[in-house]
Specification:
This protein is an alpha+beta fold. It contains three helices and five strands. A five-stranded antiparallel sheet has the order 1-5-4-3-2. A hairpin with a 4-residue loop joins strand 3 (58-63) and strand 4 (68-76).
Length: 110
């Protein structure tokens, strides 16, 4: 990732647990309106010892069929737990890379 990367935005993610009925209602609501779909493929990287995962950190390349891919590094803003257990706050660094370079990295990782 270049030194010209944009500052790390903070990602705030709140996850909800839905019942099957709530999920069905939400899915119907979202799919009953005009929409487009986009396929994304995520490739995650870590050591055999899961060093990144053990630090609640992730490193991925995301492709979506365009001419570029995105490298993303996420890690917690602090080791403290939040009062809402479903609330996650992370730093997230992203950088666009060319699709050929992304494919080389992914192939080398396999």
């Amino acid at each position: 990732i270049s030194t010209k990367s944009r500052p790390a935005p903070i990602e705030i993610e709140l996850k909800y647990s839905l019942t099957k009925a709530e999920y069905s209602l939400l899915k119907h609501h979202l799919t009953s309106r005009p929409h487009t779909t986009k396929t994304q493929t995520n490739y995650y990287f870590d050591s055999l010892q899961l060093s990144l995962r053990n630090k609640k950190t992730s490193l991925r390349i995301r492709t979506s069929g365009s001419k570029t891919a995105i490298v993303c590094l996420k890690f917690p803003t602090s080791p403290k737990k939040h009062s809402l257990t479903s609330l996650k706050i992370n730093y997230e660094y992203e950088e666009n890379i060319s699709l050929p370079i992304a494919k080389q990295i992914i192939k080398g990782h396999s």
